[in-house]
Each structure stands twice: as structure tokens, then as C-alpha cells.
Design goal:
about 150 residues; mainly alpha; disordered N terminus
Amino acid sequence: NTMNRAPAHNTESFGAVLNSQFDETPEPEIQPSQDQEAIAALMLTAMIQAAKSDGEFDEAEKEKLLGHLGEVDEEEAAFIKERVQAPIDIEALVANTPEGMARQVYAMSLLAIELDTRDEAEYLHKLAAAYGMSPQEVNAIHAEVGAPSLYT
């Protein structure tokens, strides 16, 4: 019975939860929603920026990125190319991150790199600072994905 259990820690807005309670259309959406598209683009941007943070986006990093994505269509390939050529913009990335998504975006950034250069570490530090994440939070994410700690 779901009525009497305590609500889980909820990151969704109350409005979204209410709407899902009164949603009359049980059939699944076929088209990914704009939100999902936006989040996918955000994650991709995060990964590419992180990969470029050491001053280059080499073939190994490109392979790693595409490995995370699987098959990409022409539109996605064009988006990737455009992102690779765009300057790194942490402020824009943070500004476009929906409430409650900072940890995921940070984790995706971390997964995109080997974290073996000072530039990458500095990029992650700036990203974490822009999200207002504590060193403890950051190190916890690094531990979760098996990456070296950023802070000692």
C-alpha cells in the first residue's frame, strides 16, 4: 500500500508530482519530451566540455564519448561537432542545468575524461564550485565512479 508510506526524498516539483497523480493518459510517450532532449543535450555538452578541458579533444576521447552514446544519427553527430568547436562555457552549462541535476551533470563530465591532467582537475573544480558543491560531495561522486579524488 503506497498511501501510508513516507514520501521519498523528492526532487520533482510538487506540481509535477500532482500532475502525474492526475494524469489521464497511461500510454507511454513515443517522442522523447523536450525536457529529455534538453537533458540529453546538456549531458552531451557536459561530457564534451570536460573532454576538451585539457586543451584538446583527441580521438581517444571522441571514441570514449561515442562509446557512452552508442549509435548517433546525423543530427546528433552535427550537434557533437558543433559542441566540440564551441568554447568551454561553465556558466552556460550551470545556467542550463535543471534543479537537482547538478550531480548527474558533474558525474557525466567526470565519466568523459581520464582525470589525468591538471587542466581537467581545474575544470572539474570550477564546475563543482559553479554548482556550489562541497569538496565532500565532489569526492563522493568520484568514489562512486571510481575516479581519483579531486580534493585531499
